[in-house]
Amino acid sequence: MDLFASVEHLNGVGPKTAETLKKYGIRTVRDFLYNLPRDYESYEAPTSIREMRPGKVVIKGRIDSLSTRRARRRNLSVTEGVIRDATGAVKVVWFNQGYRVKQFSPEKEYYFTGTYELRNGRYSIVSPSAAEVTEVDPSTGLSPIYVAHGALKSHDYKRLMGKSRGIFAEIPDMLPSVKAGTRAKALFYAHFPNTMKSVEGARNYLAYEELFELILAARLNRRENEKLRAEPVKFEAARIRELVSRLPFALTGAQRRAAWEVFQDMEREVPMNRLLQGDVGSGKTVVAGLAAYEAFTGGVQVAMLAPTAILAAQHYEGLTKILEPLGVRVALLTGATKKKTDLKRSIKAGEIDLVIGTHALLTDDTEFVRLGLVVIDEQHRFGVEQRQRLMLKSPAGLAPHLLSMTATPIPRSLQLTVFGDLDASVLDELPAGRQLVATSIITEVETREVLYPKMEEIMRSAPDAKKHGDKAHGQQIYWICKAIEDPEGESSGSRGGNKSSGGGSKSSDESIGKSASEVTSVKKRCKRLREVFPKATVEFLHGKMKPAEKDLIMERFASGEIDILVSTTVVEVGVDVPNATLMVIENAESYGLAQLHQLRGRVGRGASAAYCYLLTSGDLRPSRRLLELTKSNDGFYLSEVDLKLRGPGEIYGALQHGALDLRIASLSDTKLIARAQKDVMRFLQNPENLVKYKELMQGITKYQQITTLN
Ligand code: ADP
Ligand code: MG
């Protein structure tokens, strides 16, 4: 069995299934085997229908009369049916899971487990998970639950796994440090659990394997980086002091520490490869500004890459203000920049010291004479190739120093261990006077009574003391929507790039995230809010608008002219308007924890109290993600929670493009990490291993992409 063979080689996988699998990053047999269940359901000891009591129940029976209808309330489809056993019948209900109609065949017997409760005056089983009786181990009743991928639901994965049962025995060992056969056994029990104990054993091995790969990838990356040469930049204490004394605020202790670490790195001949992590609003930009000035004094050019034009413009404005008086020539290069050719000529001639820009920076014709420092803001928003393209713009034989910045922190637990080889600075201190954002979850039904009055109140409050928004008559509001326009026809809800549905909710094996048709668009919401608040200025903003239009809207919002800005997540990163004190996030359940936290960071930047409302449809209980957000404003804490809920995939971002996810979330297991670290060290002592363990080396390339910054 060639583990790297394409999924088409698997039993039961036709072209259409293969296409879906590939879309979700499952390209090879190996990927398929490593698509582990996210949980297990127990169908142990079913009761008869007659003996059911309200609460969680397991029953065994046949199902019929299945049909789906739209509920009276918008945005909800209801699938109903009847489950029968020898003792009686019970109604069953699912919400937004229309595929259930096709899942069952009337001849077959199934287990169901869900809540038996009173709904609309009648007892029913609500949102049960289900498994074919023949597919569940009768002695333990355990059945795996897979994350649904588009049309491929959990039960489809179970069926496909069943057809591939035969290949498990052929799975070869991969790691030098474990007993022969451990891997094949672990994978088998992960997919075909017989006892919870065998599942634990399986997951333990698989966690170890994953740690081994990650740590090895990180080590090898560091080795690669150490081989490169960079232009050393001497630390100029007096000049840096001068810049610091001109700043309109005192640096926080954390900013000083981070800047100091950066300066020390830049003095070396090995390129700096540093990650600057700091919660939203912690003041990363000024640290980048200090690094840029240091590079300038050392005579090298600086490129700063930002994910959006809005953000690039904001950095340009902020950094020009502090750096230009000191003689630094700063330029902005985005898609909208006029006279690009002229600007590029100046960059190439060395007449520009610091270029701030978006993807427009990456084109081949953007050349530098002496690029010595690259700053990447919101680094997780860029793919490895994009980052690399910028790195290659240094003079031949040299690599630039690299400062990557992110507001999505690596959980401390990972940083000390798995990513121990990564140079990271942390801004763990917010500038004085920052507000905690009071966050609450509300349902659509409560909009009128709770939300609108609050919005009125905000718009009547005196503008924030900070010197932004001189045109504001009150405080301002962000309203975040998911979609730009109303969908035409039934398009798929899970758009690429949005990894939010990674499995935070544990309710059942439904696919999480709404379809596009259930989402209110920016335009529609804008129209509605204009009706609700006729005196307010309401405008919208989204990523597909022309850069000039976007800039204009942002300018008007920053000046206080716009009261309510209805926007997609383009405002997610970096945007800084202290007079905006309330944010509403519509369809909050469809975002990941980290993203919600970042969005929320747009408010609470001034002296006034700030609020965030997470608006949900209210059909399901609020997820753990949302609840945690109401309890904490601490990005590090939330990143730990996120890690526990979904695994650390998001940390480095390549995965946002879909392909990669860390499988095992038990990375808080320090003993296991220590063991993997030791074993990796031993592995690396023998250079031949890098050739001998082919599958391992091939498998870690994807982790190398995650653990590398350059
Ligand atoms: P982020 O880390 O989210 O990128 P920014 O760099 O955008 O944060 O900084 C957020 C705001 O805080 C900016 O308005 C910036 O001028 C301000 N700021 C940065 N450092 C300090 C400081 N030490 N004291 C007060 N304000 C600061
Ligand atoms: Mg920022």
- Specify the CATH homologous superfamily of the domain at 437-632: P-loop containing nucleotide triphosphate hydrolases
Backbone structural class: alpha/beta
CATH topology name of the domain at 437-632: Rossmann fold
Residues in helix, % = 25-40%
Low-confidence stretches: 487-517, 648-661
CATH class of the domain at 437-632: Alpha Beta
Count the strands? 20
Radius of gyration: 27 Å
Q: Give the helix tally.
A: 22
**Termini separation:** 35 Å
Largest sheet: number of strands, sense, barrel closure: 7 strands, parallel
Going across the major beta sheet, what is the strand order?
10-11-9-12-13-8-14
CATH architecture annotation name of the domain at 437-632: 3-Layer(aba) Sandwich
Q: Report the average pLDDT across residues.
A: 84
Shape summary: globular
Short description:
By secondary structure, the chain is an alpha/beta fold.
Main features:
710 residues; OB fold (Dihydrolipoamide Acetyltransferase, E2P); Rossmann fold; six-stranded parallel beta sheet; 34% helix; globular; binds adenosine-5'-diphosphate; binds magnesium ion
